[in-house]
């Protein structure tokens, strides 16, 4: 039987090797991270939620849905029934693609926006944020270009950064994404030999800009993307939250190749984390594989609860109740802005959703002003978080979804005081309270727009 080799005595040569190993062992764990994690900076959302939770601060910052109107008692009964009657299934692993009954119901929900879909093409995810992550994962290599409205949803920008995609913003006007600017961007990128992988768009009640893509522009946006071979990702968590009760035809209803993302976060309960992607059949299998590697399967329990809720409750009138509350809050915000804000501020009038996008007078830097606002007990989301390139210093997002109308009015009164103080400093010293990095409105392309 061969003898095990005797280990050689430690030699001088072994000492540096051990030293290297020791040095490697002493290296900070972060030094071993993959390069792509460099793009994962703390989103402003996290800081905002921390601030929002302080009771003395009126938070107009986060986009937390207002759940006060949910029928909690009947939901509690539903949860009890689910465990008692279907607990063996609800508490078990399920299909990676999602519970079949829920996928059928999701198709009924999407039909409200003109989408005719096959439940086989629906993939249930842990919130639409997960769908965004998975879609980016299967489409984007490092360095790939993604087109997105400027400004855009901070969580999407986070996913694009995490996969090292480069975001090129396309500006909006009061009717949403501007087709000519989209065409210009694509033409200019093509001249550099670049075909973007995706157009990421939020057509309805945009987060953060509050605007809706005009119906007449929808087919044009799709045609432009098709002619350049760019896939369209339509993110639509707010589409059913229109204040006039009107719904808009989804981009997906006009083109079956659109990747559509939906969510129950704003129309039912964000804490359940149930969202979905509707994808072309050619994309579905890859998406399911990506989902499987992320979570094995979405939680059976929350999916079945949503399914029971949709089957047993008048969810359409619940959405109406939500939108009535949001409209009342939007009105309170708009009234207060009109009454209290200094001259030189402009904002849009959203027809649904959660957000007003405010442009402040030249010279005011909303990010630099935020700590002073929080000291004055009001919080907002500063504009730069909604651009991938640091643009948006003159903008901020106000969310009216969560606080009561009275708190909203008080919050705007405090914000107006902070703005007045900034303007006073500028008037007195001829410079901003802190220098602004740049300026531009939501209608102005950010610098990276080619
Ligand atoms: C535009 C947009 N997309 C996606 C999401 C993520 O939603 P979910 O809760 O479904 O993950 C949000 C959440 O605020 C959003 O505003």
Automatic annotation (TrEMBL):
- Which residue numbers delimit the Aminotransferase class I/classII large domain? 71-415
Is Nucleotide-binding among this UniProt entry's keywords? no
- Keyword Repressor part of the UniProt annotation: no
Required co-factor(s) are: pyridoxal 5'-phosphate
Which InterPro entries is this protein grouped with?
Aminotransferase_I/II_large, Class-I_PLP-dep_aminotransf, PyrdxlP-dep_Trfase, PyrdxlP-dep_Trfase_major, PyrdxlP-dep_Trfase_small
Q: Which UniProt keywords apply?
A: Aminotransferase, DNA-binding, Pyridoxal phosphate, Transferase
Classify the source by domain of life.
Bacteria
Q: From the UniProt record, give one GO term of the biological process aspect.
A: alpha-amino acid metabolic process
* Gene Ontology molecular function: any one: pyridoxal phosphate binding
Q: Which family is it part of?
A: Belongs to the class-I pyridoxal-phosphate-dependent aminotransferase family.
> How is this protein organized at the quaternary level?
Homodimer.
Q: Which PANTHER family match?
A: AMINOTRANSFERASE (PTHR42790), KYNURENINE_ALPHA-AMINOADIPATE AMINOTRANSFERASE, MITOCHONDRIAL (PTHR42790:SF19)
Report what the protein is called. DNA-binding transcriptional MocR family regulator
Task: List the source organism.
Answer: Pseudonocardia kunmingensis
